[in-house]
Amino acid sequence: MPLGRPIEPLAPLSAGRVGVRLIRVSDAAPLERLLRENRSWLSPWEATHPSGSTVVPGSVSMRPTIRLLRRQLKAGTGVPCVMTYDGSVVGQLSISEVSGGALRSAQIGYWVSQHVAGRGITTTAVALAVDYLFQVLGLHRVEICIRPENTASLRVVEKLGMRYEGRRLAYIHIDDHWCDHDSYALTREDVPDGLLARLTGTDS
Question: What family is this (predicted)?
């Protein structure tokens, strides 16, 4: 079930040069530009619609999509964010499938522009998001599902020390195929002092 209440707008999170904040309608133009510039970098991992009706990301205005994403806050089902580096938008981080009740879990998905890849931006951003989910929203479990061929994304969960929990066969439709995904997760007990503190070696 959803969280059971609206989610308060996320206060901006940061660690060094990396930031995570709620997506804004004004982010449409920079996101569209990044999506166009990163087509070959991102397209192997992007979800598509089985009907073939998928719109190429960046080819149309994202403003309606952003407004739709922000409705997740009121519904208590998600927190749509952007990742920033030195204040500039460099990708998206999506907190989705937020559940309350006895489950209290969420999923995280992300993409970052190739021109800043390899700088630890996504790893830090995910750590910030996980700490927010555990410490602010009071969730218990966070999951990230990744295609086993996506080595760059797998490095993120490996650096964060997330637990491998198995393979989901034919899980998400991507590029005309139903693709397997590997599931990685953390529970609140895994990082009692916070994931960012563990990542940076400042936990007790």
Answer: Belongs to the acetyltransferase family. RimJ subfamily.
Find the helix or strand (DSSP H, E) in which 82 lies.
strand 79-85
For helices 121-135 and 151-159, angle between their N-to-C axes, nearest 10 degrees: 50
Whether the pTM exceeds 0.70: the reply is yes
Strands 105-112, 18-22: pairing is: unpaired
CB 92 within 8 A of CB 83: yes
pLDDT band of residue 21 (cuts 50, 70, 90) is very high
Q: Tell me the C-alpha to C-alpha distance, in Å, between residue 189 and each of 34, 51, 140, 192.
A: 37, 41, 8, 5
Identify the CATH number of the domain in which residue 114 sits: 3.40.630.30
Dist CA 189 CA 199 (whole Å): 15
| Domain assignment present for 17 | yes
Measured CA to CA, the distance from residue 193 to residue 109 in angstroms comes to: 23
52 domain-assigned? yes
